[in-house]
Write a structure and sequence with these properties.
With 581 residues, the protein is α/β, with parallel strands linked by helices. The chain is built from 18 helices and 29 strands. Helix 7 packs parallel to helix 9 and helix 11 packs across helix 12. GO terms for molecular function: adenine deaminase activity.
Length: 581
């Protein structure tokens, strides 16, 4: 763990100084570069010396020794710091390694990652081994520490024990606690969560909120209890209230909340023209949403909306680094910082032509540098194909619930009274109600109900991708649902669409049934196909991946299907318990 705190050892630091003394050569020299100097808030020219992964000098001087030094004339290029994504959910079918590799091509060279999937699906020892090994890739990887599962799981006190949470909080790669999806429990008197917040503060780490629709008074209460930032503002007025209470405001543009254009217009309408308390985030979007870019896309939108260019770049770089107290490492082009540098064709085009990450080229002259991100052997971390040693039977697909769940949008579900006959093996395509089953991946329990609004003519879908890694079955034909389940099991996990006994579409998830091992560019192809086939069958919302993820997520209203059973979020009660098989 000391590797993170003491990034460079004494011998390396002495070598960095020796480069300035002319006793050793830089490894890269960027001559006459026009770069963003965030201290002076100006575009300035300088020579930038890099030794391995660190900027060792920025200024007018030239090194006296240039043996084996790569010299690049940057007279016609514009340099900005590598972008930072402060709110990555690196398990949205893709995995942390493939997300890092893809993001780097758009200039995002630092990810601050949610640890939820690690906390739920990995042993602590393996999770920390993964964190350690991911330090060797060009992307700089930091992490969060979750305080709750954001659902009702059967072993919450084990997964989120004081010992486990404390170990995560104390890890040097962890920069914050949260996000606080369980904040209602905190307000209701959960002193253990408050203690963890206090521990995070003691360790000089931040607390990320999750306060959609929160009132001014609630925002004030959460600030008093330790929250530092929130990413859930959906209007300019909500941004204003957060600023008034002293929050750092994380402006979001994601696959389920593409809010940035509206937020930027609202800032202008409200006369908010100071940007030091703003940062950007993409909130773990589905891979196909990233086809147009990541953080670079948000910077471009900000510039097009009239945000001063330097402020637009700062919201993706130095503002984030200063907020997390890591500006001594990243977020700016200055002596001593990690050599994360984006080379642009113009100030108005934030998508880089070339990218340096930790002093290594990951993109050069518009082309991806092959093998910059060596493959990971996930089995080393205990993550292999999902193995189900139990059989699904027609008895598991018995539906007698008096009410079901109705989708209001991609992620919000409300209760509704079931009025159709559900005793048969098929449902009509004349309505938008489907059978819905959540079943334990170990085969110990299940819960069955009806789902309204997901699709009108979906025969069967089986998914091992869910909030908890349990199995979701949706469809109108029980026999096809059985077929889809069995095919998903053969794949070792994934999402499978079946119609009339034929596989329509499948998206394998061989990493524990929750992640793909494909490059994101290849995953996009599979994901788009899945989206298209679901749309043909009546799925009308923006993001089915998030629908699957959030069916169990109790940080959203109103009714959720959890390991404990059908759960009323507002009343915090289990309405119908899950059934043991």
């Amino acid at each position: 763990m000391l590797e993170q705190r003491y990034r460079w050892k004494n011998k390396q630091l002495r070598m960095h100084v020796s480069v300035l003394d002319g006793k050793a050569s830089p490894t890269i020299l960027l001559k006459n570069a026009l770069y963003l100097n965030q201290t002076f808030r100006k575009w300035m020219r300088a020579n930038i010396w890099i030794y391995e992964d660190r900027i060792v000098y920025v200024g007018d001087q030239m090194p006296s020794l240039l043996n084996n030094c790569e010299i690049i004339d940057c007279t016609n290029e514009i340099l900005v710091p590598g972008y930072i994504e402060p709110h990555a959910h690196p398990f949205q079918l893709y995995n942390p390694h493939t997300l890092a590799a893809y993001a780097s091509q758009f200039g995002t060279t630092t990810l601050i990652n949610d640890n939820m999937a690690l906390a739920l699906n990995f042993k602590k020892r393996e999770a920390f081994s993964l964190l350690r090994d991911l330090r060797t890739i060009p992307t700089t990887m930091f992490w969060w520490c979750r305080f709750d599962s954001q659902t009702e799981i059967l072993n919450e006190e084990e997964k989120f024990s004081h010992s486990n949470v404390k170990s995560w909080l104390e890890h040097d790669a962890v920069l914050q606690g949260g996000e606080l999806t369980g904040w209602p429990k905190l307000l209701d008197g959960d002193d253990m969560m408050l203690h963890w917040i206090q521990e995070a503060k003691r360790l000089r780490k931040k607390i990320e909120g999750h306060f959609p629709g929160a009132s001014e008074k609630t925002l004030a209460k959460m600030m008093l209890l330790g929250a530092d930032c929130d990413h859930e503002a959906m209007t300019g007025e909500e941004v204003y209230h957060r600023l008034m209470q002293g929050y750092m405001v994380s402006l979001r543009h994601s696959s389920i909340r593409p809010d940035l254009p509206t937020l930027l217009d609202d800032l202008k309408r409200l006369g908010i023209d100071t940007y030091d308390r703003f940062i950007f985030n993409t909130d773990g979007s589905s891979s196909s949403f990233y086809e147009q870019g990541m953080t670079d896309h948000m910077i471009r939108m900000a510039i097009e909306k009239g945000i001063p260019t330097i402020d637009a770049y700062n919201m993706a770089t130095i503002n984030i680094a200063r907020y997390y107290n890591i500006d001594y490492l990243i977020g700016m082009i200055a002596t001593g910082r990690v050599a994360n540098i984006n080379f642009l064709s113009s100030m108005e085009n934030p998508t880089p032509v070339s990218v340096l990450a930790k002093g290594k080229w990951v993109k050069r002259d518009g082309l991806k540098v092959e093998d910059a991100y060596p493959a990971i052997d996930w089995i080393e971390y205990g993550l292999k194909s999902m193995e189900l040693d139990w059989e699904l039977s027609m008895d598991d697909l018995q539906f007698s619930m008096p009410f079901g769940i109705k989708m209001e949008n991609s992620v919000i579900t409300k209760p509704y009274s079931i009025s159709i006959d559900v005793s048969g093996d098929h449902l009509s395509n004349d309505h938008d109600e489907c059978f819905f089953t959540l079943i334990d991946r170990k085969g110990k329990w299940r819960i069955n109900t009806l789902l309204k609004g997901f699709a009108t003519n979906l025969s069967a879908l089986s998914s091992s991708f869910s909030n908890t890694g349990d199995i979701i079955l949706i469809g109108k034909n029980k026999h096809d649902m059985m077929f889809a389940f069995n095919r998903m099991r053969e794949l070792g996990g994934g999402i499978v669409l079946v119609e009339n006994g034929e596989i329509v579409c499948e998206l394998p998830l061989p990493l524990g049934g929750i992640m793909s091992d494909l490059f994101i560019e290849d995953l996009m192809v599979q994901e788009k196909r899945l989206f298209e086939e679901l749309a043909k069958r009546g799925y009308s919302f923006s993001d089915p991946i998030y629908s699957l993820l959030f069916f169990s997520s109790t940080h959203l209203p109103y009714i959720r299907i959890t390991q404990q059973g059908m759960y009323d979020v507002m009343k915090k009660t289990v309405l119908f318990p899950s059934i043991m098989r």
